[in-house]
Amino acid sequence: MKTKGALLREHNKPWAIEEIEIGDPKAHEIKIRMEAAGMCHSDHHLMTGGIPMAGFPILGGHEGAGVVAEVGEGVTDFEVGDHVVLSFIPSCGKCPSCQSGMANLCDFGAMLLQGEAVSDNTFRIQTAAGENVYPMTLLGTFAPYMVVHEASAVKIDKDIPFEVAALCGCGIPTGYGSSTRSGDVRPGEDVAIVGVGGVGTAALQGAVISGARNVFAIDPVEWKREQALKFGATAAFASVEEAAMAIAETTHGGMCQKVIVTVGEVHGKDVDLWMGITAKGGTCVLTGMGNMLESDVTLNLAMLTLLQKNLQGSIFGGANPKLDIPQLLSMYKIGKLNIADMITRQYRLEQINDGYQDMLDGRNIRGVIRYTEEDW
């Protein structure tokens, strides 16, 4: 079918809305009519080249929700009309990672940047000129329709607003799980959240819900610091350097048992700063993405050893998508998890560049693209 999508044709150029053609669902695939797509910082890394796809043009978007419009052969868990969230990491349930409880490291994840469908290793999206298109994490939520493997979709209750559900495809599980799973925040612990955009605000809520004693929010944008206090932070600071003295005073020199780093772009030179506010025996969780082509890190190895600190990577917050996405949305429904107030602005697909500029300017916790009948 012919539709449209937001494409990148080279690095450091704006998104362009172009006509694309999406194939019909094959075995174990479903077609989804998109309702909402979250605007995550990771898609901006596509523009800068920080996340290198296998080629151009790239169809962006890896966070979204919609309605099943068609199912392919062999699909048994979904039917037409189901409401679904797109999980940016598939969960096959069969590979060694999935079977060992690490569904966020599903073997299908190795294929996410190559552009070819996991079903049959073919390109399923083409431009009007017939060029193969590389969809972000084999999704491409920056288009009104998509065809995906059933492992990338999670069925949800039909009374969940789509703009809320969309954020559970990446940002909410990634942030919340960075605190509750990867960070394993325990009651009474002191926690620092470095960067309080969409992922950071979810991490902040995860720390609060886990019973953290003090939650220190760190972000250079004053408005975000104000929002962090509304979401439960006990104090907010513009920089790690500014926060360090206050954290030391509040914790009597003990610092934070858990430091969750959810900045939009990780730089190796900052790692030792984050480790500096991590308590001895504590854990610093790196959730924010660095440039895949960079490997330089500043880290005092002696202090890492002598104070027995942990530096923990985290992808998707250690989440099990099929379990955690419905669970997080059930927490939203009963008022335990505030997702709605994280949505700062909604945009049309044609406003995508405005939305990303708002993100870079620190005006959004999370921007969401909302599709309407005009798009379908």
From TrEMBL:
Name its co-factor(s). Answer: Zn(2+)
In the Enzyme Commission scheme, what number(s) does this protein have? 1.1.1.1
Q: Which Gene3D superfamilies match?
A: Medium-chain alcohol dehydrogenases, catalytic domain (3.90.180.10), NAD(P)-binding Rossmann-like Domain (3.40.50.720)
Q: Which UniProt keywords apply?
A: Metal-binding, NAD, Oxidoreductase, Zinc
Reading the lineage from the top rank, the first entry is: Bacteria
Pfam families documented for this protein: ADH_N, ADH_zinc_N
Q: Which catalytic reaction applies to this protein? A: a primary alcohol + NAD(+) = an aldehyde + NADH + H(+); a secondary alcohol + NAD(+) = a ketone + NADH + H(+)
Alcohol dehydrogenase-like C-terminal domain mapped to chain residues: 198-331
Q: Which residues form the Alcohol dehydrogenase-like N-terminal domain?
A: 27-157
How would you classify this enzyme at the top EC level? oxidoreductase
The molecular function terms in GO held by this entry are:
oxidoreductase activity
Quote the PANTHER family the UniProt record gives.
ALCOHOL DEHYDROGENASE, ALCOHOL DEHYDROGENASE CLASS-3
Question: Its family?
Answer: Belongs to the zinc-containing alcohol dehydrogenase family.
Q: What is this protein identified as?
A: alcohol dehydrogenase
Q: Which organism is it from?
A: Gordonia westfalica
Highest lineage ranks of the organism?
Bacteria, Bacillati, Actinomycetota, Actinomycetes, Mycobacteriales
